[in-house]
């Protein structure tokens, strides 16, 4: 139903409308050309006839041609050509009138009007020749060609040839009838074409419509076979990409909920158990200090998780404020590293730092960049293997300071690299207590860098390790 109620009538009516417009334009243009060509041919024929008669008058004045011979020549010419021929004297009075055109009675009034207009021009403005066409759009044009008769450079009269252009109406009617037949055949073809085109176009659209309904119900396992090229094929591929992205998002969301639930439930269970043990006396007073330290560590971890969630909420609601100032990036990196020295030494990790001793001032929000560096260092330590190595270095390119942090050990699978900065994404899908985290940190890092109009990227290869690099604007640039 989706296909035939919408696409088919629209396509059909669009094609019919185009056919109708083309037919009207074609008829108008062809009718105009037929009328113009027929009129021009008539003008040429009448001009030649006037010239022949003018030559006969010239011969009459220069030779011994008799009046009878001249009269007979004009009469025979008009009769043979079926013309209406008028010859006037110097006072514009008819001297000869030959009306051999069988249609003359139908256009005689127009012929006399033409004669009056032309004669005024010839005798008052001394024009040698003129062609006049009776105006009007709803009748066949009447053409009058006039030529002066001269004797020793003096006008002694004028020749008028009248003719009505024939065949135009019949030709235009024939063209119009053929156009109507062609239009009707085109409508029939449009009906068939519209049916098949609508059917072909609507099939993937119908499938997408049904798949979209399933997506709205939470069923994200929707993929449509791409059978078309062009825009429809691109739309299908885009829909498939969207469905895959939604499925990926839903999987990561569910993973995130599981991670957060686990991260909150485990410490709360531990805290509840330890406190319950202290209250009911199961834990002796001598051991309480040890368990209180565990409870404190768990509450700190819960607080970190909650702060990450609050940061994520601020980012999504566009409430993260960025305060740009100038400060020394090298000094900030040193301060951040100091906070991780104990963890690094406990796991016997080799730390290499390659940054300049001089100041390298950047223009950014120092608190947010501190959050970025801390998060990246925390990940580097968490995922670095014991007795592995971590390296931190900086370099300048095109007015930017590039800060890189790498670690050896577990790498990021290639298929996960494009999702590593997505919200809720976590490479380790299992609830691994040895590697805590909810997959929020890197998405926060990405948003902070984006708010600075900077870039961040990651490379991860087996045997080499993982490298995170981000850029900051140099203050002097």
Write the layout of secondary structure elements.
Blueprint: H1 7-62, H2 67-81, E1 84-89, E2 94-99, H3 104-125, E3 129-133, E4 142-150, E5 155-164, H4 168-216, H5 230-280, H6 285-316, E6 325-328, H7 329-338, H8 341-346, E7 350-354, E8 361-364, H9 366-383, E9 389-397, E10 400-407, H10 441-451, E11 456-461, E12 465-473
Parallel strand pairs: 7-9
Antiparallel strand pairs: 1-2, 1-5, 3-4, 4-5, 6-8, 9-10, 10-12, 11-12
Helix pairs in contact: 1-2, 1-4, 4-5, 5-6, 6-10, 7-9, 9-10
Describe this structure in words.
It is a single chain. By secondary structure, the chain is α+β, with helices and mostly antiparallel strands. Among the domains are: 165 residues, PAS domain (Beta-Lactamase, 2-Layer Sandwich); 153 residues, 2-Layer Sandwich (Heat Shock Protein 90), CATH 3.30.565. Helix content is 57%, strand content 17%. It contains 10 helices and 12 strands. The strands form 3 sheets. A 5-stranded antiparallel β-sheet has the order 2-1-5-4-3, with helices on both faces. The protein has a 5-stranded mixed β-sheet with strand order 7-9-10-12-11. The chain has a two-stranded antiparallel sheet with strand order 6-8. Strand 9 and strand 10 form a beta hairpin. The relative contact order is 0.07.
Report the end-to-end length measured between terminal Cα atoms: 62 Å
Low-confidence stretches: none
Please give the CATH class of the domain at 7-171.
Answer: Alpha Beta
Query: Which strand-content bin applies to the residues?
Result: 15-25%
**What is the average of the pLDDT values?**
83
Instruction: Give a count of the beta strands, DSSP E runs of length 2 or more.
Output: 12
Q: Assign the CATH architecture of the domain at 7-171.
A: 2-Layer Sandwich
Number of helices: 10
